[in-house]
């Protein structure tokens, strides 16, 4: 069976037809595959290491149409409480896991939408609409962030802290001892439009 997939790697788009496994999502070559049936908590072959405790991971949107994988150590993992993340995700906070962009691959239809800043792009599943990807060109390095709650083993993702603490919803309890940043948790270049 051939399906048209939108593959994004290094910021380039390839719209060529590619073979797809009949499972929920295409297998991402070179990365561990997930257990059929989308059992998010028991995928074999997981590796841990690096800043965020994650060396490689795979995941997918709730409908399984958009899958992702990353290899190499994560550069940053953070809870985000900003209004924009809440608006896009429909959740009181988001969990983002960042990798160098060249180490992240996607399989499936990505629907790209601009964020509030001209520098931000957000990627959603083209079928179910789940928020999956965050990219910000104002970051000092080219990094791609994936939704940490959509990885196959979310308990492996260890956040480094809370970004945009000042925008948090007051009744959401966060009893951890992680650092809290009033705004961004990572250095940025001068932003074209402040969000």
UniProtKB/TrEMBL annotation:
Residues 57-166 form the CENP-V/GFA domain. Keywords: Lyase, Metal-binding, Zinc. Residues 36-46 have a biased composition (Basic and acidic residues). InterPro entries: CENP-V/GFA, Mss4-like_sf. PROSITE patterns: CENP_V_GFA (PS51891). Pfam families: GFA (PF04828). Residues 21-49 are annotated as: Disordered. Gene3D superfamilies: glutathione-dependent formaldehyde- activating enzyme (gfa) (3.90.1590.10). The keyword DNA-binding does not apply. Transmembrane segments: none annotated. GO terms for molecular function: carbon-sulfur lyase activity; metal ion binding. Belongs to the Gfa family. This is CENP-V/GFA domain-containing protein. The lineage of its organism: Bacteria, Pseudomonadati, Pseudomonadota, Alphaproteobacteria, Hyphomicrobiales.
């Amino acid at each position: 069976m051939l399906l048209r997939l939108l593959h994004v790697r290094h910021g380039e788009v390839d719209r060529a037809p590619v073979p797809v496994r009949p499972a929920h999502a295409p297998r991402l070559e070179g990365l561990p595959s997930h257990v059929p049936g989308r059992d998010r908590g028991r995928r074999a072959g997981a590796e841990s290491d690096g800043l965020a405790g994650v060396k490689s991971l795979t995941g997918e949107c709730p409908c399984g149409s958009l899958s992702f994988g990353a290899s190499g150590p994560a550069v940053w993992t953070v809870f985000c409480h900003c209004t924009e993340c809440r608006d896009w995700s429909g959740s009181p906070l988001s969990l983002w896991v960042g990798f160098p962009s060249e180490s992240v691959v996607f399989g499936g239809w990505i629907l790209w939408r601009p964020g509030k800043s001209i520098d931000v792009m957000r990627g959603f599943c083209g079928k179910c609409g789940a928020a999956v990807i965050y990219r910000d060109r104002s970051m000092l390095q080219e990094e791609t962030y994936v939704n940490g709650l959509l990885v196959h083993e979310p308990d492996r993702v260890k956040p480094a802290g809370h970004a945009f603490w000042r925008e948090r919803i007051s009744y959401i309890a966060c009893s951890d001892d992680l650092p809290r940043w009033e705004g961004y948790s990572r250095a940025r270049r001068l932003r074209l439009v402040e969000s």
